[in-house]
Amino acid sequence: MTNYLLTLVLALVLALWSLHTSAQDPRRSSFDAMSPATQALQRDDSQNPAMLWVKEGEALWSRAPVSGTKSCADCHGGLSRMRGVATRYPAYDTSSSRVLNLGARINLCRTNHQGQPAWRTEDSARLSVEAAIALQSRGLPITPPAHPALKAAQQRGATLFASRIGQVDLSCADCHTTLAGKRLGGAKLPQAHPTGYPIYRLEWQSLGSLNRRLRSCLSAVRADASSFSDEEFVAIEAYLMQRANGMPLETPGVRP
Amino acid sequence: MARTLITVPSSARRGEIIEVRVLIQHPMETGYRRSSEGSILPRNLLRRYTARFVAADAGGAGELVFAADLHAAIAANPYLSFNYRATTTGKFVFAWEGDEGFSHREETVLRVV
Question: Which of A126, A198, B59, B109 yields a CA-CA distance of 20 to 30 A from A30?
């Protein structure tokens, strides 16, 4: 009986604590600002179009790209063993001495262990595998690892995030920190926490990566996306994930 | 080969109303858009979706339970759902037809207890 009471009290305290912390944390996922219809699309896996890519990713995981090569599952085992992996990317990779996002890390496996040409950033197959892996971490908090090289990338990303760019002369921070929550035309400016990537964006009518989302923001401020290097894009990604540290991953997200 | 996501309960009580949800991957290209190189993207639409129910004891082509004509301006990856009163054990046969000779078929068994 005392055990039962103790558990009850503990549960109550924990519930109150989580309520307290969520009320304290001013960070919000863009999910909260979406219309109820779009939220329903993300909540229900049977309606979420991104699940079509997840299904493809699950098939690719256990299929060898050509006969005689290894499949992802041959080394890593079942997809469920990838639980938590997506919460740690971008991360520093010692073998290539670079900071890589999850998609680039998948490509590394593909070129090194499967002997296949790397997938392009927006390749449907790459997004599918990425989504299938990230789905395993759904609900887990984003936890960027501590590494000096990653820290350098995060700092570089923070600088880029605060620098004014393009003909419109705006920085990422102008919209997504200073003016977040206010309206830009009909749309509410989000805080830009990358909690659901790869996302199914209704505007794209397909799955897309964070890189693609960044490029579409760059064209919105009329900056030249081609003047940014891959390292700079990954640095921004690393900074954004650090900024969203502790927020739950919700892949595969749906966004308007 | 199109990917589909079909959500149908595997079994239902006799007389129970079940929801049948079907999502298919398709670009639903209108024919009015241009590619990044400037050329017109050829029209590629799903034209017709049908769902038939084939009772296990009757066989044959079964009974048409839901159908839809699809047009341009319907979103990519169309999702359609309908309600169905389960009466006998059998299978749903979902079929899509579209431009460029697109044709796809899926089946799902429904057990009535």
Answer: A126
CATH assignment at residue B34: 2.60.40.10
Tens digits of residue pLDDT in A14-52: 555 555 555 688 999 999 999 999 999 999 999 999 999
| Span A64-117, pLDDT tens digits | 999 889 999 999 999 999 999 999 999 999 999 999 999 999 999 999 999 999
Domains of chain A by range and CATH?
34-44+145-255 (1.10.760.10), 50-135 (1.10.760.10)
The rounded distance, in Å, linking the Cα atoms of B80 and A46 is 11
Contact B79 A55 (CB under 8 A): no
Q: Which residues pair with B111 in a beta bridge?
A: B11
Q: What is the pTM of this model?
A: 0.88
Tell me whether A46 touches chain B (CB under 8 Å).
yes
Name the residue facing A51 among B5, B28, B75 (closest C-beta): B5
Between B3, B7, B75, which is nearest A46 by CB? B7
Read off the amino acid at residue B43.
Answer: R
Shortest CA gap A47–chain B (Å): 7
Smallest Cα distance from B58 to chain A, Å: 30
Furthest C-alpha separation in chain B = 57
Distance between CA atoms of residues A93 and A91, nearest Å: 6
Burial class (CB in 10 A: 0-12, 13-18, 19+), B112: middle
* Contact in structure between A243 and A21 (CB atoms under 8 Å): no
CB A208 within 8 A of CB A253: no
The answer to whether the beta carbons of residues B105 and B54 sit under 8 Å apart is no
